[in-house]
Structures are given as C-alpha cells and as structure tokens.
Write a structure and sequence with these properties.
The longest helix has 24 residues, at 99-122. The mean pLDDT is 92. This protein has helices at 13-20, 38-50, 79-91, 99-122, 143-162, and strands spanning 2-7, 27-31, 56-59, 73-77, 126-132, 165-170, 173-176. Helix 3 (79-91) crosses helix 4 (99-122) and helix 4 (99-122) runs parallel beside helix 5. With 178 residues, the protein is an alpha/beta fold. The radius of gyration is 16 Å and the shape is globular. It has a 7-stranded mixed sheet with strand order 3-2-4-5-1-6-7, with helices on both faces.
C-alpha cells in the first residue's frame, strides 16, 4: 500500500501520517530534513519526540535508493524538503536554473522516489509519503520559487498516480481523495 498525504504547511500532514501507523512497531521513518538553523533544529526535535522509540529513523536528505532497513511500514517525511535539498544541491547560491537542468533535477528526484517505492513493495511493506501541496497559493514572485513550485507540483502528480490512497489534510483532518 502506497499512501500519499498532502496538504498545506502546518496542516497536520506529519501527525496524520504518524497516526495511520502509530500502533505498528516495525516502522522506518525516513527523514529528509537538514538542520540549517535553530528553527529547523527545533522542528526536528519535536518530530523526534513524537515518534515511538522502537521506530527506526533513517536520515537521508538526498538519497532514497539505499534504505538500510526492512520493516513493515515506512514513512517518508517529506518529499517537499527532499525536492528542496535536490534543487539547492545543484543550484548552490545561484538564482537561475535552465529548463534542462530543472528536468534533470525532477528526473533524479522521481528516480529516487520510484526506487524507494520499488524497495518497499519488494519487501511487502507499506509506504506513507508526506508532501506539501504547493499549487494552491499565489504565483511566487521569483524564478527559483516558481521553478520549485513547478517541479514539486509535477512530482506530486506522479506520486498521486502511483499511490493507492491519497489524503488531503486540512486543519488536521485528513480527507481521502483517492
């Protein structure tokens, strides 16, 4: 079972995903965040505190194709940060990116996601995927933000297609849309 959980920032996506598998002890939590500042450090600390102690955690900001754990459940949190990591890994401090490079980044991300999905399915596991819905707001003001929104939107579409279930989380409430 592949379950995609999407919604806006601070909508309750992660908690919703965690609650779907909270009773399971055989869980790998795949964390894609990188700690760049005190705010992110605090967010990571809160996420860690919420997780049951028996869950395995794999911190992997750029790779999903080499998961070290075989468990019953997997929770990938989150694809949006994974995309951000890939974008800035290539871009660095730049402020412009060609359409060709955008496509290459998108393809690399999708290849990693498909690899994880294949791994989970091969091991008869279930995967919860958390991602932000980035297309419900205004068009971003700057080039890189628009590129990010476009890449993330296309990735979310592909994940929606590949998923058995899709939930939209609003105000902490998950609404099944597929």
């Amino acid at each position: 079972m592949i379950r995609l959980i999407t919604g806006g920032a601070r909508s309750g996506k992660s908690s919703f995903a965690e609650n779907k598998i909270k009773e399971c002890t055989s869980v790998t939590y795949i964390a894609t965040s990188q700690v760049w500042d005190k705010e992110m450090e605090e967010r990571v600390r809160l996420h860690r505190e919420r997780r049951p102690i028996q869950w395995k955690t794999w911190e992997s900001p750029l790779k999903l194709s080499n998961c070290p754990y075989v468990t019953r459940e997997y929770l990938l949190d989150c694809v949006t940060l994974f995309t951000t990591n890939h974008l800035f890994d290539v871009l660095g401090e730049g402020d412009s990116i060609t359409p060709e490079l955008q496509k290459q980044i998108e393809n690399n991300i999708l290849r990693e996601l498909r690899s994880l999905i294949d791994f989970v399915q091969k091991n008869n596991g279930n995967l919860q995927i958390v991602t932000n819905e980035v297309g419900s707001s205004i068009v971003p003001e700057n080039h890189i933000s628009r590129v990010f929104r476009d890449i993330q939107g296309r990735i979310n579409q592909e994940l929606g297609r590949l998923s058995d279930e899709v939930y939209l989380v609003v105000c902490g409430i998950g609404v099944k849309i597929k």
